[in-house]
Amino acid sequence: MWPELLIQLQKPQVWLGLALTLLIAYALYRFGRALLGTLERAVGGRPMSALKWLWLLIVAGGWLAVATHVAYLPGVPVLFELGQDIMSGFRNRAGQFLVIIALALIAWNLIGSATGRIVADEEFNRRSVRVQTLKGVVESTLKVLIVVISLITGLQVLGVNAAGLLAGVSVIGLAVGFGAQSLIKDVFTGFFILLEDQYGVGDVITVNTGQLSGGVERLNLRVTALRALDGTVHIIPNGQINTVSVSSKDWSRVVAEVDVTYTANINDALRVLEKVSEEIYADPEWRHFFLEAPEMQGVTQLAPDGVTLRALFKVQPKSQYAIGREFNRRIKIAMDQSGIEIPFPQRSLNFGTAPIEIKLTREDLRGDPRDSQDRLHSPQKPSMTREPEEGELS
């Protein structure tokens, strides 16, 4: 037997046959394990473990018998005859159909495992957004192809004329296409969204300059799924998206504004605003978020209730929310410590011809506990969660 085996192993077709039969055996083993997995809750424990080992022995023994037949070793009578019977059985339609299902199951699992190993960078950037988006699209597309190819091959094995079936399906698809133009529009729009990298999974967007805004949780050729601040998921067909405002692409900006009263010293208020901006920029905890030094715009508006001062921070995408909250905390404490008032409600009530003016005032800040506030160290770090858009639906 050994001399015959060594002679047969010198033939490339024998190695090819062994590799193919081993692949089919592994596919059948995985298919059997999947079926046993459905019974695991009902059986469980040692009986299930025994069934798994039994199935492994059956597949291993079957492949050994088929390998004996492929290598043509008639000197091993029992295995050679068993392998011949197994090969004859798999040449029948039922055997071929079983092999197709098993191979499709392996391909399905391989795609899931391969895409699961693709991990985007922890840091938010365009590359990580692109990877997360294309990962889901490629996985779903390949799985659809596996189902379609397996279905067509299986129908051919069962004796169905796949060519005629495809021709009939194409005619029906053409008729359905006229009634499903919105679906076709969704797919084409989704294709160009992905091709042009307009936005992706992880981006914060506002759709159609309207009330739907949130983080993109899922994006495929047909729909975009947004997660609102309160957890609500909005499912939007891509064909209904006309304009998209992306708040997290390439870089973001913090519009750091504060209002002061008309009685305040504007120059002192500007110096406080500049000092707070430079403090945040120099703070090691926040410095890595900044892409440029803060830009002081100065007095931007003389509003009815006060004077608006503004600074601009160019920062990394999605960091503008936390930096904006930290700025609000620090500027409030700094204004209190400098004795500069932030506007509060004032109303004039008119009773007949003699107006009575009522003002809401506060006590003298001397001895006020707000004087001892530490603006450089926050009791808790602001979260990176986005702020809701004005008028946003939840």
Automatic annotation (TrEMBL):
<feature type="transmembrane region" description="Helical">
    <location>
        <begin position="53"/>
        <end position="74"/>
    </location>
</feature>
<dbReference type="InterPro" id="IPR010920">
    <property type="entry name" value="LSM_dom_sf"/>
</dbReference>
<keyword id="KW-0812">Transmembrane</keyword>
<protein>
    <submittedName>
        <fullName>Mechanosensitive ion channel family protein</fullName>
    </submittedName>
</protein>
<dbReference type="InterPro" id="IPR049142">
    <property type="entry name" value="MS_channel_1st"/>
</dbReference>
<keyword id="KW-1133">Transmembrane helix</keyword>
<feature type="domain" description="Mechanosensitive ion channel transmembrane helices 2/3">
    <location>
        <begin position="142"/>
        <end position="181"/>
    </location>
</feature>
<dbReference type="InterPro" id="IPR049278">
    <property type="entry name" value="MS_channel_C"/>
</dbReference>
<dbReference type="GO" id="GO:0005886">
    <property type="term" value="C:plasma membrane"/>
</dbReference>
<dbReference type="Pfam" id="PF21088">
    <property type="entry name" value="MS_channel_1st"/>
</dbReference>
<dbReference type="Pfam" id="PF21082">
    <property type="entry name" value="MS_channel_3rd"/>
</dbReference>
<feature type="transmembrane region" description="Helical">
    <location>
        <begin position="94"/>
        <end position="120"/>
    </location>
</feature>
<feature type="domain" description="Mechanosensitive ion channel MscS">
    <location>
        <begin position="183"/>
        <end position="246"/>
    </location>
</feature>
<dbReference type="InterPro" id="IPR011066">
    <property type="entry name" value="MscS_channel_C_sf"/>
</dbReference>
<feature type="domain" description="Mechanosensitive ion channel MscS C-terminal">
    <location>
        <begin position="254"/>
        <end position="342"/>
    </location>
</feature>
<feature type="transmembrane region" description="Helical">
    <location>
        <begin position="141"/>
        <end position="159"/>
    </location>
</feature>
<dbReference type="InterPro" id="IPR006685">
    <property type="entry name" value="MscS_channel_2nd"/>
</dbReference>
<dbReference type="InterPro" id="IPR011014">
    <property type="entry name" value="MscS_channel_TM-2"/>
</dbReference>
<feature type="region of interest" description="Disordered">
    <location>
        <begin position="361"/>
        <end position="394"/>
    </location>
</feature>
<comment type="similarity">
    <text>Belongs to the MscS (TC 1.A.23) family.</text>
</comment>
<dbReference type="InterPro" id="IPR023408">
    <property type="entry name" value="MscS_beta-dom_sf"/>
</dbReference>
<keyword id="KW-1003">Cell membrane</keyword>
<dbReference type="GO" id="GO:0008381">
    <property type="term" value="F:mechanosensitive monoatomic ion channel activity"/>
</dbReference>
<feature type="transmembrane region" description="Helical">
    <location>
        <begin position="12"/>
        <end position="32"/>
    </location>
</feature>
<feature type="compositionally biased region" description="Basic and acidic residues">
    <location>
        <begin position="361"/>
        <end position="377"/>
    </location>
</feature>
<dbReference type="InterPro" id="IPR045276">
    <property type="entry name" value="YbiO_bact"/>
</dbReference>
<keyword id="KW-0472">Membrane</keyword>
<dbReference type="Pfam" id="PF00924">
    <property type="entry name" value="MS_channel_2nd"/>
</dbReference>
<feature type="transmembrane region" description="Helical">
    <location>
        <begin position="165"/>
        <end position="184"/>
    </location>
</feature>
